[in-house]
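Lab notebook, page 48
Experiment: co-folding of the full assembly
Goal: obtain a model of how the components sit together before planning crosslinking
Operator: M.T.
Materials (sequences as entered):
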Amino acid sequence: MDIKGVAKATTKTLISYLTYEAMRIVAMQLDQTNPPLAHWLRGFSSTGKLQDGDTYLQEMLQSKQEVAFRLMTVRQHLAQEISEFLPEMLRSEMEQSNTKLRCAHLDRLVNTTADNVPEWDKLDQE
Amino acid sequence: MDIKGVAKATTKTLISYLTYEAMRIVAMQLDQTNPPLAHWLRGFSSTGKLQDGDTYLQEMLQSKQEVAFRLMTVRQHLAQEISEFLPEMLRSEMEQSNTKLRCAHLDRLVNTTADNVPEWDKLDQE
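Observation: model returned without errors.
Model output:
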């Protein structure tokens, strides 16, 4: 398993995701201070461009550089703030998620088996 | 800024992303040991279901539980392995990414300005 490659690709995904979160935060701030700009930002961000955060910002720098700079500041701040919780949250949420899926599946299996008990067996139990 | 909310949402995105990476790894392993199953796995995973890793696995548990269990084991292993590098990689890649965008933008501005120097200025410089 190419763990280093996975870590690198995961970091890229994380950066794009935090660019999206930064966009949501800045749009909410602009709702208070400059609604037309908030509207512009949501419009600019709605066409799936945010799949790649860097390409998205590169394009934005060419039309509204002040908004792009603000997004870059906010996404870097988010990265600083969350990175210390991230390992512990990832490990524990992943474990919980797997446990929940396994339990729900076992539960379903047991209930399906119970439903399939032949009629005469059910009669015996009565 | 709701940092805790962002951290929680980021973890959920990470879990889905690692489910996708686990699928790629298991599909490559199955290419060697059970090609028809590798083919099935890629087909099952190609319809955008992987946007939500848990819903994807829940569905898979109902058709091929052994593959779903394997994916769960691999994604948990990936989470364990990469979580210790993640904070440092995220912080440094984010900084690099922002610096690169800022430099490219400044570079473009400077070059555009140079192109816009009036003709008589250019003549003076000759």
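Interpretation: The helical segments of chain A are 3-33, 35-44, 53-63, 65-83, 86-115, 119-125.
Next step: discuss with group before ordering constructs.
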